[in-house]
Structure formats: structure tokens, C-alpha cells
From TrEMBL:
Name used for this protein in its record: Molybdopterin synthase sulfur carrier subunit
Family matches, as PANTHER family: MOLYBDOPTERIN SYNTHASE SULFUR CARRIER SUBUNIT
InterPro entries for the chain: Beta-grasp_dom_sf, MOCS2A, Mopterin_synth/thiamin_S_b, ThiS/MoaD-like
Gene Ontology biological process terms, A to Z: Mo-molybdopterin cofactor biosynthetic process
Amino acid sequence: MSNLPITVTVKLFAVYQEVYKLPELVLTLPSQTPVSQVLEHCINEHPQLEQWRSVTHFGVNLQFVSPETPLEDGDEVVLIPPVSGG
């Protein structure tokens, strides 16, 4: 296990894309950072996202994962907010 930083791509959808006005972010994080820290990063930058914390799910490399899942260099992360439709 390395202590080198990792780079992940965060795909933004729905409310996250609306707040950031970007389709994705590229973050540099410590090795073995849990995916939940990506959400923490977003909430720290945009506190209005706090309301979505408890209902956001996580995806890494096209798989649903638990918040504790450690990230690896090159991972693609998706924050999945609730979807409304009609």
C-alpha cells in the first residue's frame, strides 16, 4: 500500500452538476481515501449540498459501492442523488 496521492474523476449529475456547473471534477486525494470523503469534499465546497448527504449513494467504476469503499488511482466516482421524475 502506497502513501502516494491518487487522482479520481468525479462525474456530477442532477443537483451536484447544477451546483458546480460542471459535468465532472478531478480530485487528488490520499491513497485509500473512502469514497464518502468525495461527498464530504463537495459539501465543504458547497454547504448547500448538506441536505443531500443522507440520500446520496456512491458508484465507483460503474458499480454501486458502500461509503467505506477505498478509492484507487484512476477510479471514476459517481455521486448518485435521488432522482425525481414524473
